[in-house]
Specification:
Layout: H1 2-26, E1 58-64, H2 73-88, E2 92-98, H3 101-113, E3 120-124, H4 128-133, H5 141-145, H6 148-151, E4 163-164, E5 167-168, E6 171-172, E7 176-177, E8 180-184, H7 185-190, H8 200-212, E9 216-218, H9 227-241, H10 243-250, H11 260-274, H12 287-295, E10 299-304, H13 308-315, H14 318-323, E11 324-327, E12 341-345, E13 348-352, H15 358-372, H16 374-382, H17 401-410, E14 414-416, H18 419-422, H19 425-439, H20 445-458
Parallel strand pairs: 1-2, 1-3, 9-10, 12-14
Antiparallel strand pairs: 3-13, 4-5, 6-13, 7-12, 8-10, 8-11
Helix pairs in contact: 1-3, 2-15, 2-16, 9-11, 11-20, 19-20
Length: 460
């Protein structure tokens, strides 16, 4: 256990100074509308499913990444349900700490290493192993079994990323694919591309035609380091290696990152960059800017997960939304994977601090049910998002045509693992940093594969 904490501390210590500086800079703005940290201590009318919390004042700290500046359908549904909980629970005070995604992911690792977790938190599947090993959170099997209606509202496979053996350690936020090719069919047609290519050679040819028209073929915002890996390589890698290879890596059954198929995937990604498929400032802009450039008609494609749907529906001009089609990367020559797959899964979930007891724990359980239950799922679907819940009771008249198109699209593909959900944080850190260098030619595929393998072997 100590070894895991030391390793996690070693992984995150470089980020502590950055987080501290950000906190200092934002202290004065924390109580403002746009501040990163805010609290809500308003008293509400009573009604709670937490019996021990009815007559006892309870304060819960809750750290999450639902920033209100760039919010998708899941985030909107979350705040509706959170407000509902506050209104119905006058004895419970929720102290929210809200951080943008990239900063959140860094800080939660720091808090975990220091054993200073908030009462409720948001976490990625790749964090389950270390969080469980260091007794930061408990299994949620018992609370799920006590409320069959709540448990049965989830898609069964939404729990998969949060399991250790037969124990479940997270309440799913979503069932999301991380790879979708959003492309503008009008721009494609203007470049002489009649339809989305179904072969890798055809894909490269299409990129050449788009470049010849002076259009950015694929806008990439990899400043946060995760987009190239989670939204592109997780699927491109599977095209080359096949899914069994990944499971052998994950389960330590002999596969290596230096295997030729994985090196070929890194090579294919670097070749896309070399041929000018991406914007030159790919490592300097983030995923929100990536979406904005596409929405402004300045790029033919971008690759991101299903969370981008609600952003497009809400913010993109009507002509861009109407021109947007959905696809996945085509099959590669000689690859061991399947052509109609997309990386995806539950990805992120909620849990409670293992130290919670009594009224605080009951209040936390009630909050978890409120922000992940059927009503949350219904609101998310109707807003154009993909929750971890089954699609029950949805008013289809409220669905955007683009979201309806997405539901048809996703029904035709199969999910494969997302690297940064199922691999350990140290391995992902080396991979993500290395991909930034790979994309600008500072490291070659074979060299990066060796670096990732070396970090991987430290955990064996």
């Amino acid at each position: 256990m100590k070894g895991s904490l030391v390793k996690l501390l070693g992984f995150t210590i470089a980020a502590i100074f950055l987080i501290t500086m950000v906190a200092c800079e934002n202290k004065g703005a924390a109580e403002s509308k746009k501040g990163i940290l805010f609290s809500d201590t308003r008293k509400k009318t009573a009604n709670t499913t937490a019996p021990e919390a009815k007559n006892e004042l309870v304060k819960l700290s809750f750290m999450h990444a639902w920033t209100k500046e760039d919010i998708d359908a899941k985030g909107k549904a979350f705040y509706v349900q959170l407000d509902k909980y506050k209104k119905n629970n006058p004895t419970v005070t929720i102290e929210d700490e809200v951080l943008p995604h990239d900063a959140y992911e860094t800080k939660i690792k720091i808090l975990a290493a220091a054993n200073e977790m908030p009462d409720l938190f948001f976490f990625k599947g790749s964090m389950v192993g270390s969080f469980v090993e260091n007794k930061l959170m408990d299994s949620v099997n018992d609370i799920l079994e006590k409320d069959a209606d709540w448990k049965n509202s989830f898609i069964d496979s939404a729990f998969d990323d949060f399991k250790v053996g037969d124990k479940i350690y997270g309440v799913p936020v979503q069932m999301a694919n991380t790879h979708t090719v959003y492309y503008n069919k009008k721009i494609f047609e203007g470049a002489g591309i009649k339809s989305y290519p179904d072969t890798w050679d055809g894909f490269l040819e299409a990129i050449g035609k788009l470049k010849a028209k002076g259009v950015t073929p694929i806008v990439l915002g990899n400043k946060g380091k995760w987009v190239a890996e989670s939204c592109i390589l997780s699927t491109l890698g599977d095209r080359h290696t096949g899914t069994d290879w990944f499971y052998c890596i994950r389960d330590k059954k002999g596969a290596r990152f230096t295997d030729k198929e994985f090196v070929q995937a890194l090579t294919a990604l670097q070749e896309l960059s070399k041929m000018g498929a991406f914007n030159a400032d790919m490592n300097s802009i983030d995923s929100n800017q990536q979406q904005s450039i596409y929405m402004n008609g300045k790029a033919a494609m971008f690759m991101e997960g299903c969370w981008s749907l609600s952003m497009l529906i809400d913010k993109a001009p009507k002509d861009i939304v109407e021109a947007t089609e959905l696809a996945v990367l085509p099959m590669v020559n000689g690859g061991k994977g399947q052509p109609r797959t997309t990386s995806g899964g539950g990805g992120w979930a909620y849990n409670m601090n293992a130290k919670l007891k009594g009224a605080k724990k009951e209040a936390a359980i009630a909050l978890l049910k409120e922000i992940t239950g059927k009503e949350y799922g219904k609101l998310t679907y109707e807003g154009g998002g993909m929750p971890g819940n089954k699609a029950d009771g949805i008013d289809k008249s409220k669905l955007s045509p683009l979201f309806t198109k997405y539901l048809d699209f996703i029904s035709t593909v199969k999910y494969t693992p997302v690297y940064d959900v199922q691999l350990t944080p140290p391995v992902i850190e080396v991979m993500n940093n290395g991909l930034q260098e790979l994309l600008v030619g500072r490291v070659m595929p074979e060299e990066l594969a060796k670096k990732i393998q070396a970090e991987y072997e430290k955990g064996n």
